[in-house]
Design brief:
It is a single chain. This protein is of the alpha/beta class. The protein contains 11 helices and 10 strands. Helices cover about 35% and strands about 15% of the residues. Strand 8, helix 10 and strand 9 (about 255-260) form a beta-alpha-beta unit. Helix 2 packs antiparallel against helix 6, helix 5 packs across helix 6 (about 135-145) and helix 10 (about 240-250) packs parallel to helix 11. The two termini are about 25 Å apart.
């Protein structure tokens, strides 16, 4: 019988120490690599525009995620409002840029997790959790005390602080980061963050160290790393270099979802060639690169590799 890793930390009391350490990173805030250094515990807000309470947009079973997360009961997604990135083409623009959502209490967040479990979801999928980690972990503790037993999916943009990630060891079961760009100048222009490739490489290595390659049992993901890479028009994502890093510095058996669903959203029209959809040939070239660098094919004819 699978048991999520956070239960051991709950029993030992270590989970309380982690929660305290995570809240300490809010004052001044150094949760993510932006390091705004505002005092969020006193109501100040940085680039992410979130203060000292959870802020969510929506939640519910999601059937559009990767198959090992969805299974037959769906992935229990919680969409957190705002983001530590500012991608000009974000497909969740209303949530990440316009702040669609509302503040709730940690207790309400815990109840949402238990509700998703009661609805038969296979996991708790934390969408854009980076800037709200202390509240999330506190809610996990409260929910676990009331019977939460689902694995946690840390669904993020890849721009993560290794110091914060270390505090999540033994709490997160499945890491699902994006690796968006290979070029830091492109990342600065399109997502408004500095040194994205360098930060993402270190973060993904730490995630892989903690959980290893994705473990799937009876078609359901239980633990491990799943990497997403969105192919952008005009080669802006630097796909060959991203895939080469994954295959050679993480593992050729890394579960990688090479995504072809780019479409112009947000302010993409201001940043050609992001003002057009992805060409089929561009996506096929990305799949060919996955083969070249040695990533293992999950299913013939599918876009995912491991």
């Amino acid at each position: 019988m699978f048991e999520p890793s956070y239960l051991e930390l709950l029993e030992s009391g270590e989970l309380d120490r982690r929660i305290e350490a995570l809240y300490a990173r809010l004052s001044p805030c150094v949760l993510c690599p932006n390091e705004c250094r505002v005092d969020r515990l006193r109501g100040e807000k940085g680039l992410c525009r979130v203060g000292d309470r959870p802020m969510i947009s929506s939640y519910g079973p999601h059937f559009g995620e990767e198959a090992p997360l969805v299974g037959f009961g769906g992935s229990g997604t919680i969409f957190f409002t705002y983001c530590n990135l500012a991608c000009v083409y974000c497909q969740n623009w209303e949530i990440s840029h316009l702040g669609e959502g509302e503040e709730i209490s940690v207790e309400e967040l815990a109840r949402i997790m238990l509700l998703l479990q009661a609805r038969g979801c296979h996991n708790i999928n934390l969408v854009t959790p980076t800037h709200q980690v202390p509240f999330i972990v506190e809610a996990v503790k409260k929910a676990a005390e009331e019977g939460l037993r689902l694995p946690l999916v840390y669904n993020c943009g890849g721009y993560e602080s290794v110091e914060t990630l270390k505090l999540l060891e033994g709490i997160v079961d499945i890491y699902m980061p994006d690796f968006k760009y290979a070029d830091e100048k492109v990342a600065l222009r399109l997502s408004k963050v500095r040194k994205y490739p360098q930060v993402a490489r270190k973060a993904l290595k730490e995630m892989h160290r903690q959980v290893g390659d994705l473990v799937i049992k009876d078609g359901i993901a239980l633990r491990g790393l799943l990497v997403r890479h969105l192919v952008l028009p005009g080669g802006l994502a630097g796909t060959p270099e991203v895939l080469r890093f994954i295959a050679r510095e993480l593992s050729p058996e890394t579960y990688v979802n090479i995504m072809d669903q780019y479409r112009p959203c947000g302010e993409a029209w201001k940043y050609p060639p992001l003002d057009r959809p992805l060409y089929r040939e561009e996506y096929e070239e990305a799949l060919a690169w996955a083969e070249r660098v040695g990533l293992k094919r999950l299913d013939p004819g599918r876009s995912r590799f491991w």
